[in-house]
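INFO  loader      accepted 1 record
INFO  loader      residues=164
INFO  predictor   begin
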Amino acid sequence: MASEALVGRGPVASVASSQVLAEVRRLKLDGLPLDLAAVADRAPLAAAPVADSPRKIEAESPQALVQGTLAAIAAGDALALARALRGPGGSLTEDDAAAAELRFLSPSARAFWARVAQALEEGDVDWVDGEGPDEAWLIANVGGAAGSYRIKLRREGEAWVLAS
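INFO  predictor   done
INFO  writer      dumping tokens
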């Protein structure tokens, strides 16, 4: 039974819960043979690595990072944007690229960043120190119902990254 396969065996034991069992029953999967161990052996455990973008976003200051981010958004470069989120170290993965696409390149995200770019062009922004020397805020006064957008940045080593 599928619901029995979900409970108490191997790596899936930690995900078994009454909610999962209820969903299995709701979907009427109880009668189906389900070998989760075989599925787990084939499933990737981590997202595949991806190569960095040839575009490098300068990150020596919060201002440079935001300008580089806006240029990468204009170019549609999800990998450069993923690096702006992750910082200079480590490998990027498919998950990083997908997260960057959602955060920067979706229609609503593009509208958000377009308003930030407009506020920068008009000089209607404030750069504010955060809690310590490794944190800063960009406050873009965009007007309207939103009023202002606050973007948190933090320093990791010598580079600044967009904080989540």
